[in-house]
Write the structure tokens for this entry.
Amino acid sequence: MTDLLGVPPALLFGQLLVGLINGSFYAMMSLGVAIIFGMLRIGNFVHGAQYMLGAFGAWYLLRLPELLPGLGLPSLGYWWAFFIVPVVVGMIGALMERLFIRRVYDLEHAYGLLLTVGLAMVIEGLFNVAYGAAGQTYGVPDALKGGINLGFMFLPIYRAWVIGAALVICFGAWFVIERTKLGSYLRAATENPDLVRAFGINVPRMLMLTYAFGVGLAGLAGVMAAPIYQVSPQMGQSIIVTIFAVVVIGGMGSIFGAIVSGLMLGLIEGLTKVFYPEASTTVIFIIMTIVLVFRPAGLFGRETSSHTVADLSSGRVGSILENSRLWLLILAVIGAALPFVVYPIFGMKILCLALFACAYNLIFGYVGLLAFGHAAFYGSAAYVTAHAATAWGLPPEISIFLGICVSTMIGALFGWLAIRRQGLYFAMITLALAQIVYFYAVQSGWTHGEDGIQSVPRGRLFGFIDLNNSLNMYYVTLAVFLAGFAFVNRIVRSPFGRTLKSIRENEPRAISLGYHADRFKLIAFILSAMLSGVAGSMKAIIFQLASLADVFFMTSADVLLMTLIGGVGTMLGPVVGATIVAVLQREFASFGAWVVAMQGAIFVLCVLFLRKGVIGTLEEFLSNREERRHSALDEIKPMDRSPLSQTAEADAGGVR
Amino acid sequence: MHKNALQDDYIIEAEGLTKTFSGFSAVRNVNLKVRRHSIHALIGPNGAGKTTTFNLITKFLSPTAGCIRFNGEDITALRPADVALKGIIRSFQISAVFPRMTVGENVEIALQRPLGCSYHFWQSERSLGNLTERVDQLLDAVGLLGYRNRPAAGLSYGRKRALEIATTLALDPEMMLLDEPMSGLGHEDVERISELIRKVAAQRTILMVEHNLSVVAALSDNITVLAAGQVLSEGPYSVVSQDPRVVEAYIGSVDE
Ligand SMILES: Nc1ncnc2c1ncn2[C@@H]1O[C@H](COP(=O)(O)OP(=O)(O)O)[C@@H](O)[C@H]1O
Ligand SMILES: [Mg+2]
């Protein structure tokens, strides 16, 4: 047999087939995500979990007699699953929409993403508790067993069926949405709900059905995937980030783009496995990066000219909770006493996380950009510091410095790629970029894969402070934290910080005054990456370990959760949030596998009931009290009258 | 920035300005010349493309075709912030203040920009020096002095518009673009803002979109009428108001 391009044809076609199969799933999943995003403006991060539900649904149907003994139920095979499961999963989706997602439609996009991240953690966490990491196998249905010998390769019938069915389903859905009356109602409902309501259409129900439809597609993909991949709780988690990247490449909200990019990227991934296997896990993310540089709106997306960031901050100028000197002092005192109350190592964990959250708050709270890839900065700094200290034997201060340099540079690169995008788009891009760093860490030799870099020597700081002494290490960490905390507060209260605030409050107006908003955002992003690097480098020295968990996306989700619980855009919020999360994680540790589900539940509860966070809520309480006092005073003083007297309008003056 | 302006009388010259939104031309082949130190009004029915024209001149939108010159210099390829740095400051159709900042801080943000320290993230705010005096002057000019420490969000609509003008004036722009400065204002406020516009126009050029025809008649030296994205008529109020095409296209759809 002759080789094609130096590769045996069987290998080439085999991988192309695998690529096409993966591509079929990418297309079906991205289609659902694109529909949900296009119609509901929700970045459905729980889509991966819903796909997993589909696969488990098929597996449950097969095992009905064992699951519900005594009812005399038959075991239902693949074809039953093919029709029943998508409907059931879609109904679960409708229920989720009804109970949770509906509540965040009118809020900033960030909350929709956070909510679905939380839901995904709950669902996947629970399945993990029940089934662990092991996968279940699901047989190929009898009718589709066997294969055809095409001469140059062997084509299993089931795989041909998956590809064919996926194509029909995808293009059918595209046709319904883009070319039929029902689809045009759907699109109108999202663009102008009042108008559609005036036609007597029940808009909330329509949105619920749309969500259910998108979720049903994920369920169907799950059923189809069951005989090919292992049915495991992790199957959705590994695919969802890729799906987000596919949707970004196709162009957010472009249904056609999602389908075509899904298929195409699956194929490209397959080809990469043949010609350059090292890159096969990252190729999609790298393509996304290239697409973003040349076509920021994606391959099939339309350029939008919207200039808005989200103002989620709940800090209040002049409040006692924002007095930076006072709190720096208080935190220094509490910090100094802490190692006598808790183990120093736990104290250091809190300080590291708090610094990381302060750094994150800079971009999320003070710029208003939902970054979802800060693990890349934290983790890369941790790895570089660990490597420098371990393999090169460098002293801790130089190792830390190198780690910070690397995270800053990665921050500059990622920021440059992502900064022109807002909202959900920004979140998806940063998430996908961070995934490149993650896979790099998985594959590179120097990072030691699953083991990570262990036994990092702490060494002597500046040659004379022995960090192996845990109190020395603690107070050095405290000093670094306080310096970082003070630095963030200085940034926020600098001329630069003021300009950032104006951009956050009304970006078009700030631009019209001559401020290059993107430059300000980029600088803030780089500073945030740098400070995250400080936290990551410290972490590597303190825990003497840099591992995959540091660059994994859960770390990005954790830092977001800390900032959210504490209070976005408040000075103390990240510190309080980090403390709460650290304590909860310690308390939950005894629950083992339940941790993820519990953390997810906290996410959901926070988004639904504590959007301002602990500090933001406290702030609100304080400011209400102050207002009541003021209005009591106003009644004594006569109100001033001026020529411009008109009733105050409720609008906040933003241009949307 | 030098001015070779004296020999050419126009501060803004837009030629063949066209903007197409996925097949629909919001602005088509518009030629617009604005004379230096004049008040030029842009009028026309809703949807005529006035705001779009503003967005094109200030580069908040990129023109599909056409070019824009400011003081004889081609500014078509500039970014919106750069257009502002050249001295063209715009307002927005919906009031555009920084809602959670105080009235004084709104003005300070503009005053801070020419100081060149806006990127200084390592400095304290105190490094800005004392801007209070300038802030007070500007707020006094628009009658908001008593509101300096109030959050801008709590102002009435009319005061928000006055604050916008104060913020814009803080940059001492050569040219101001005002998009419907009177919309949503009561009678008294309209008079007050008209007076303000007349006062600040002494040193600069103003291009404004306005629906209130009596204001337009009283203030403007020159008028351009847009309809369906195209220039319908041009000239001083006396000429334009007699143009039968304007009467036909405009009167029927004036909403005030
Ligand atoms: N970003 C946009 N995308 C699509 N159509 C637009 C956009 N901006 C304006 N238009 C359309 O262009 C036309 C002119 O709008 P505009 O310039 O706002 O009119 P006006 O004269 O009332 O200010 C309108 O029909 C409007 O719907
Ligand atoms: Mg308009």
User: Anything to note?
Assistant: Residues B 50-51, 93 surround magnesium ion (ligand 2) (CB under 6 Å).
